[in-house]
Amino acid sequence: MGHMTRDIPIPWRGHDRAGRNLELRAGVARDAPRYLELLHVLVSETRNMLQTAADPLPDASSQRSTIDGLARRDNAVCVVASRGGQPGKSVLLGCATLIGGRSRATLHAAELAMGVRREAWGGGIGGALLDACLTWARKGSILTRVSLQVYADNPAAIALYLSRGFELEGRHRNYARHGEERIDLIGMGISLLPGAAQ
Prior knowledge:
Layout: E1 12-15, E2 21-26, H1 32-45, H2 60-71, E3 76-82, E4 92-100, E5 109-116, H3 125-139, E6 145-151, H4 155-163, E7 167-178, E8 181-191
Parallel strand pairs: 5-6
Antiparallel strand pairs: 1-2, 2-3, 3-4, 4-5, 6-8, 7-8
Helix pairs in contact: 1-2
């Protein structure tokens, strides 16, 4: 694709497109209450998530265990975006998880999921989260592939992923349902192997 991915390490401090402070770091167990608050906002204000506001969210204890479990794995990471501040106290603007498989056959392959609060859309936060995840994956020695699913009617997200070297890999017809509406999901993936087209 000819695109060189922006190298964003974790942690990272900089600015969004509007010049406001932006911090990316690995999520920690203390973030669980704020993380759950963010998830509640995400599923309430956009239908671009596979989870909806009608679905139950985990409790704080389960969320702490999940975040802590990801931090202990060599092929998984949880990245959170905020304006800065102490873990567990700062409002989270967005999050991304990159989770590799658990079997020998899938340790190298990770699934990406991410979301950004509507109030922070257009600030480049989604791109920064994506770049941080890809930078983290490339610097490790395990992950060689990242996959994701995106709503077919979300052209902004599809364009973002294409700009980072993801390729269209398939279409899951009528995969998601919102009331009577059926929406296709697009499968996308990127190879992190040396020499792979970017």
